[in-house]
Design brief:
The protein contains three helices and seven strands; from the N terminus they run E-H-E-E-H-H-E-E-E-E. The protein is α+β, with helices and mostly antiparallel strands. The chain has a single domain, classed as Beta-Lactamase, CATH 3.30.450. It is globular and about 50 Å long. The N terminus is likely disordered.
């Protein structure tokens, strides 16, 4: 399996749109909050983004520091994220929880959210520590970090459905299968605009 294949040997479906298209109401709440705090800027400054301002979402929110292509650190992970995964990932490198076959693609994709910048809805599968395989949906939005040359993302995650169960494992496996990427134009186009 290559870094961009799903479990059936084909690349994940990748599309672009100019608005958030998701059936998850909490995604719309986060997206609207994010748009409000950015004012007229394309990306809001980190000082304007306070997850405590949206307490109804806080349990499912993560904030990621994109330090290098090999190091994406959980700055914040909500309580529901910790409960689902069976561990608190705060301070951990996200990429150590992503299987090798999708690690490079996952890193590149998250960096594109910040660098382009654009929003992203990602549909994928996680395998949790208890062995549960879950279909997930996440929304990623860029934040302008106060630290020079550091990029940051705010994201929200939801379980769409349980697919099945496997053996328990010492740590969860995120993005074990990638199904769909939906890029959102937030005012600067999308990474798909740069493809031939």
């Amino acid at each position: 399996m290559t870094s961009i294949e799903d479990g059936m040997g084909s690349p994940p479906l990748t599309v672009a749109c100019d608005t958030l298209m998701s059936s998850q109401p909490q995604f719309h709440t986060l997206f609207n909050y994010w748009k409000d705090v950015r004012n007229s800027a394309i990306v809001p400054p980190a000082a304007s983004v306070d997850p405590a301002s949206i307490p109804q979402l806080l349990k499912d929110i993560t904030i990621l520091d994109l330090n290098t292509p090999d190091e994406i650190i959980y700055r914040l992970a909500g309580t529901a994220v910790a409960e689902r995964t069976g561990m608190d990932p705060t301070g951990l490198n996200l990429l150590t929880l992503v299987p090798e076959h999708s690690r490079s693609f996952s890193s590149k994709t998250l960096f594109q959210v910040a660098q382009h910048p654009a929003g992203l809805v990602l549909e994928y599968e996680n395998i949790l520590r208890n062995g549960k395989r879950a279909e997930m949906e996440s929304l990623y939005l860029p934040i302008q970090s106060a630290t020079p040359n550091q990029m940051r993302l705010i994201s929200i995650h939801t379980v769409v459905r349980t697919i099945g169960f496997e053996d328990e494992r010492p740590k969860p496996e995120f993005a074990s299968v990638l199904h769909k990427l939906v890029w959102i134009d937030i005012g600067a186009g999308t990474p798909l605009d740069q493809q031939d």
